[in-house]
């Protein structure tokens, strides 16, 4: 677990609470470089989603700038980073 990635996940002002939950799950698996291997089955079970929906949420997090794909052998990896978007504030 990466404390840095966990702090980023908890502080992230994402417009989608399910995406934030998935980000927290990935942060729990991240190493000291904030890089996590995506295990869609475990991540889906953690978030209470289907694997295809989890894949869509991960893609959404990449679009938000909260995840950055990392090339490594042996699976799909992402680096957790501070999102480039913020949630809309209600009036």
Explained architecture:
By secondary structure, the chain is of the alpha+beta class. It has one domain (3-80): Arc Repressor Mutant, subunit A (Orthogonal Bundle). Helices cover 48% and strands 14% of the residues. It is built from 4 helices and 3 strands. The chain has a 3-stranded antiparallel sheet with strand order 1-3-2. A hairpin with a 5-residue loop joins strand 2 and strand 3 (76-80). Helix 1 runs antiparallel to helix 2 and helix 3 packs across helix 4. The longest helix has 14 residues, at 51-64. It is globular, with a radius of gyration of 12 Å. The chain starts with a helix and ends in an 11-residue tail after the last strand. 29% of the residues are buried. The model has no long low-confidence stretch (mean pLDDT 90).
Q: What is the tally of beta strands?
A: 3
- Lateral strand order in the biggest sheet: 1-3-2
Task: Tell me the overall shape.
Answer: globular
Unreliable stretches (pLDDT < 50, length at least 5) are none
Tell me what the CATH architecture is: Orthogonal Bundle
**Averaged pLDDT, please?**
90
Strand content: 5-15%
Which class best fits the helix and strand makeup? alpha+beta
Query: How many domain units?
Result: 1
Distance, first to last CA: 37 Å
CA radius of gyration: 12 Å
CATH class: Mainly Alpha
Tell me briefly what this model is.
With 91 residues, this protein is of the alpha+beta class. It has one domain: Winged helix-like DNA-binding domain superfamily/Winged helix DNA-binding domain (Arc Repressor Mutant, subunit A).
